[in-house]
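Methods — Computational structure assignment.
A single polypeptide chain was analysed. Its primary sequence is given first, followed by the predicted tertiary structure written as structure tokens.
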Amino acid sequence: MMRDYSYLSGFIASENLTPDGFPMIKIRDYDEKNRIIEFDFCFPLVEQDSLPESPDIFFRRIEQAPALKAVYNGDYRFSNKSWFELFEHAEKEEIPFSKTPLEIYHNNPNMGGDALQWTAEIYLPIDRS
């Protein structure tokens, strides 16, 4: 995420796109056994009629969906600890869920500062299927 933050924000600025909120990571797949995570790091944008083309940047709509929420404060490298709290809560309450959390970051880690002051919202999708 930290590596891509500047690259994506530079692309957004150079293409005159308008951000619409905080950057986020959408987990596409989480292999808990092998500790492998596939994710998309993205910035929400104001919707517009056409989007620029890029060989390594793609655009996707993330639809609203019911979810459990946690707030994480600390170094984003460890925000996945919140996932396990949400997993445990959902299992205890017998809430069906998908292990594909969405994390929304309120601070830019490239700017430094006290990591204990960083805030992320963690959303665990409720599985309605």
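Note: The chain is about 20% helix and 25% strand.
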